[in-house]
Write a structure and sequence with these properties.
Rossmann fold; globular; single chain; disordered N terminus; 9 strands; about 10% strand; 12 helices; alpha/beta; binds 2-acetamido-2-deoxy-beta-D-glucopyranose; about 375 residues; lipase activity
Length: about 375
């Protein structure tokens, strides 16, 4: 855009005054050299984005995916990602011309100028969510603060501030806060109404955003929650449901998504320079579940890896509570990889939309897609 207006200005000046365009060229050159540093990418949240942090914490295989057949389609070895291959954040890094962003806890990882991945499978916005087995959002933020300090030491205060303010911060969080009470049979909803509980989840996410903003962060990407009750792993937890979606969890996700849109709008009005993208994962995943063939899949409801009805039993890899599992022949035919997670092919389609914001989702995307956020310096 800047270039077009510059060219037309030069043209105008030439015609009218036959004036050398050095001022204009000088301006565009200095603007260009400012863009030279790479845009850092920081990733927070749960298993939809965790590239392997849980490999390095004391947890159980329920929150780990560092065994076969995880990773088999792309990496050819299990990296800790809950998929057969890459995650949405891996594709986003690729579209932004960045290397794959390593897990913060990966031994030897110390150079953070391209960013870091703090996400932890099983994590929620509430510290109580799978407490003791995951890196909760508060701890993820504490880890990010260490990286902030690294930027200041490495680049000095001014350049660190500039780099942190042009960086993109991506979040996927909430799913585990709403699912965990159903797995551990928690009485939490006897003490809190649904709307109180949602306020706590959103409140803790908001605090995290505000702290990153206070440290200089300006550009945020969010992914809303899928229709959780339709995960293969949730269709099967109440036998009397006959395999239909578990509405109580889905309705929590729906209310959360409404509250999320609202709070982001509010932050956009309150915080100067705050820019965000909000990807409608809910709509776009639902479409693929209902009309798999429209998107190049054969199966939208059952998982590729697991056992029982819909392969919804969380046994992929045979290292969890149930040891028996089946694996489909071709993960590319499936939307769901295991009871709760998607195949690389599904993640790739969603990441593409999140990046360039094409197709039907545009109305729910906030004012920007991720490409806009990465390119706006
Ligand atoms: C890891 O967790 C287990 C189970 O919670 C616990 O018994 C053990 O002491 C922990 N180990 C370390 C090194 O923290
Ligand atoms: C954050 O979550 C805790 C429970 O883990 C809750 O007590 C607190 O009120 C929440 N904070 C906000 C700002 O909502
Ligand atoms: C579940 O399926 C069985 C057998 O198909 C049927 O008899 C029963 O009425 C169904 N229950 C519900 C709640 O739909």
């Amino acid at each position: 855009m800047a270039r077009t207006s510059c060219v037309s200005l030069v043209f105008f000046l030439h015609v009218v005054l036959v004036f050398p365009a050095s001022t204009c060229l000088g301006l565009s050159k200095s603007k260009h050299s400012k863009k030279h540093h790479e845009v850092a990418f920081f990733i927070f949240g749960d298993s939809y984005l965790d590239a392997g942090n849980n490999n390095y914490i004391n947890t159980s295989t329920l929150d780990q995916a560092n065994f076969r057949p995880y990773g088999e389609s792309y990496f050819k070895f299990p990296t800790g990602r809950f998929s057969d291959g890459r995650l949405m954040s891996d594709f986003i890094a690729q579209y932004a011309h960045l290397p794959l962003i390593p897990p913060f806890l990966q031994p030897g990882f110390r150079h953070y100028s391209s960013g870091a991945n703090f996400a932890s499978s099983g994590a929620g916005a509430l510290v109580e969510t799978f407490q003791g087995s995951v890196i909760d959002l508060k701890t993820q933020l504490r880890n990010y603060k260490k990286v902030e300090t690294w930027f200041r030491h490495k680049f000095g205060d001014d350049e660190a501030k500039m780099r942190l303010s042009t960086a993109v911060y991506l979040f996927s969080i909430g799913t585990n806060d709403y699912m965990s009470p159903f797995f551990i049979n928690s009485p939490i909803f006897k003490f809190h109404s649904h709307s109180q509980y949602i306020r706590m989840v959103i409140g803790n996410l908001t605090t995290t955003i505000q702290e990153i903003y206070a440290g200089g962060g300006r550009k945020f990407g969010f992914i809303n929650l899928p229709t959780l009750g339709c995960f293969p792993g949730l269709r099967i937890i109440k036998a009397e449901n006959n395999g239909s979606c578990l509405e109580e969890v889905s309705s929590l996700a729906k209310l959360h998504n409404q509250a999320l849109s609202k709070v982001l709008k509010k932050l956009g009005n309150q915080l100067k320079g705050f820019k965000y993208s909000l990807y409608d994962l809910n709509y776009n995943l639902r479409q693929r579940t209902i009309h798999p063939s429209k998107y190049g899949f054969k199966e939208g409801k059952s998982a590729c890896c697991g056992t029982g009805q819909f392969r919804g039993v969380f046994s992929c890899g045979g290292k969890r509570i149930v040891k028996e599992f089946e694996l489909c022949g071709n993960p590319n035919e499936y939307v769901y990889w295991d009871s709760f997670h998607l195949t690389e092919k599904a993640y790739k389609q969603l990441a593409r939309q999140m990046w360039s914001g094409e197709v039907v989702s545009s109305k729910a995307m906030g004012l920007y897609n991720l490409k806009d956020l990465f390119r706006d310096l």
